[in-house]
Amino acid sequence: MDYPLFKSRAASLKTLSCIVLGVLLLWTSSGHTNASESFTDFDGQPRAVSDYFSPQKWTIVMIWRHNCHVCNEEAAGYAFFHEGNERAQVLGLSMDGQSHKDGAQAFIDNHDLSFTNLIGEPPAVAGYFQGMTGQRFRGTPSFLVFAPGGRLMAAQGGAVPPDTIQAFIDSQSENHPTTQNADSAPAGYPGDSR
Q1: Which of 51, 64, 130, 148 is the most buried (most CB within 10 A)?
Q2: Same structural domain for residues 153 and 89?
Q3: 119 and 36 in contact (C-beta within 8 Å)?
Q4: Quick one: 52 and 10 in the same domain?
Q5: Cα 64–Cα 69–Cα 75 angle in degrees, nearest 5
Q6: 100 and 156 assigned to the same domain
Q7: Does a structural domain hold residue 155?
Q8: 77 domain residue, yes or no
Q9: 26 in helix, strand or coil?
Q10: β-strands 142-146, 58-64 pairing
Q11: How far apart are alpha carbons 100 and 19 in whole angstroms?
């Protein structure tokens, strides 16, 4: 049987490639690649991580799950880091999803977390990490370190003591003075405490 659309294997592969590319372009143009739009605060309001970038402070995004042993061990240290740091803030990003929101809320309450936390579905959070870093998401906890204004400067999967992040911030600020007062984030962002 002869199918005129697929006269040769090369032509059929080219046609298939065009179809796949078209589907991907339609999918990405409809917003499916922006995982940050799938996050909410714990009041159910849609939020993006970038909503919390400060023009004056570094933003450390801690990706966690309520049943992650290491996350539970590190939470108090990051709460202390957030509260006592004039140059950095922490933003929690739970990947528990709406089906485990109660467990995530208990995690926040049990550790008395004073920093803002968002929640997203696991694929959205992993996709956000991968989209920001180009690296495969490996698990919780994971950290993204953004300079003032929102430029990604570092990413790490696994346990990272807060003093290690502070040392990184100090070294970057010394080596790149422009990271101290980047002025690209607008006043009035949800994390703005001015």
Answers
A1: 64
A2: yes
A3: no
A4: no
A5: 55
A6: yes
A7: yes
A8: yes
A9: helix
A10: antiparallel
A11: 38
For residue 36, what are its two tokens?
């940050």
pLDDT, tens digit, 9 for 90 and up, residues 72-127: 999 999 999 999 899 999 999 999 999 999 999 999 999 999 999 999 999 999 99
Domain range for residue 159? Answer: 36-179
Q: Give the per-residue pLDDT at 176.
A: 58
Q: Residue type at 111?
A: H
Residue 108 covered by a domain? yes
- Output the DSSP codes for 88-145: EEEEEEE-S-GGGHHHHHHHHHHTT--S-EEE--HHHHHHHHHHHHSS----SSEEEE
Q: Tally Cβ neighbours within 10 Å of residue 98.
A: 12
Look up the pTM and report it: 0.74
Q: Are residues 11 and 49 in the same domain?
A: no
Q: Does 194 or 148 have the greater pLDDT score?
A: 148
Q: CA-CA distance, 53 to 148, in Å (whole number)?
A: 7
> How far apart are the C-alpha atoms of 13 and 138, rounded to whole Å?
34
Phi-psi label, residue 5: left if phi above 0, alpha if psi -120 to 50, beta otherwise: alpha
Q: What's the domain count of the chain? A: 2
